[in-house]
Design a protein that fits this description.
By secondary structure, the chain is α+β, with helices and mostly antiparallel strands. The protein has two helices and eleven strands, in the order H-E-E-E-E-E-E-H-E-E-E-E-E. The protein folds into two domains: 32 residues; 161 residues, no CATH class.
C-alpha cells in the first residue's frame, strides 16, 4: 500500500468519526431531557377533619409499594363520614421509595400553578358542594380553600355531607399535572394525571 493511499484511508476514518461525534452531539442538543416529569407517588392519605370536632378524623389510604412499574396506586380503605357534618379534606402524599420518604405534597404546594385536584362523587352525597363533582365539568362547584394566586389547587377543600345516609357510594379524587396549560377553565383532562383514585363512600 502506498503512503498516499494509507493516509487517504485513515483520513476517511477520521472524517467518519468526527461526523458520528457531531451527529451524536446534535441529537443530544435537539432532544433535551424531558421536563415536568410526573412525580413518583407511593402513598396517598386523604384526611377528613370535622370542622366542629378536631378529634373526629376520617382517613382513607391508597398505596403503590413498588413505585413505577407493574403495580399502581391501590385504594385500601373506604371513606365513612357522618351525616350532616362538615369536614376539611387535606392529604399526605409521599414517595416512600426514598429514605427518608419524600413529601410530594410539599412539591405540589411549591408548584401549585402546575397542579389541580378534581373530584367526582355520588349524586348529592354532599349538601355543599351539591351535584356530582367537577371531573366531568370543571365549572361545577367544589369548595377549594387554596389557590395558586389565581386558580384553585385543592390541597385543602371543604365538604358538608348530606342529611341522607349513603352506603356504597363513590368518591373520586384526581390530581392533574398541568404545566403551561393550567387556567381558570382547564379541566380534569388537561395535562397529565398524577393519580386518579376512586374510594367507596359511606355517609352514616
Amino acid at each position: 500500500m502506498s503512503t498516499i493511499n494509507y493516509f487517504k484511508k485513515y483520513s476517511v476514518y477520521a472524517l467518519l468519526a468526527v461526523g458520528i461525534l457531531f451527529t451524536g452531539c446534535k441529537k443530544d442538543e435537539d432532544d433535551p431531557a424531558p421536563e415536568n416529569e410526573l412525580e413518583v407517588i407511593t402513598d396517598v392519605k386523604l384526611i377528613f377533619t370535622n370542622t366542629s370536632d378536631a378529634t373526629d378524623i376520617v382517613t382513607a389510604r391508597a398505596q403503590d409499594a413498588d413505585g413505577p412499574g407493574v403495580g399502581e396506586l391501590a385504594v385500601l380503605d373506604p371513606i365513612t363520614l357522618g351525616v350532616g357534618k362538615t369536614y376539611t379534606l387535606t392529604y399526605e402524599i409521599f414517595n416512600n421509595l426514598e429514605t427518608p420518604g419524600e413529601n410530594i405534597g410539599d412539591e405540589i404546594k411549591e408548584e401549585d400553578d402546575e397542579h389541580q385536584f378534581f373530584f367526582s362523587f355520588s349524586d348529592n352525597a354532599f349538601s355543599n358542594p351539591m351535584g356530582n363533582g367537577n371531573i366531568d365539568n370543571a365549572s361545577d362547584p367544589i369548595n377549594y380553600n387554596d389557590t395558586d394566586g389565581t386558580n384553585p389547587v385543592g390541597l385543602m377543600t371543604t365538604w358538608t355531607t348530606s342529611t341522607t345516609q349513603l352506603t356504597g357510594g363513590t368518591f373520586t379524587v384526581r390530581l392533574q399535572h398541568q404545566p403551561g396549560v393550567k387556567t381558570a377553565t382547564s379541566g380534569a383532562t388537561d395535562g397529565d394525571t398524577d393519580f386518579n383514585l376512586q374510594f367507596v363512600l359511606n355517609i352514616q
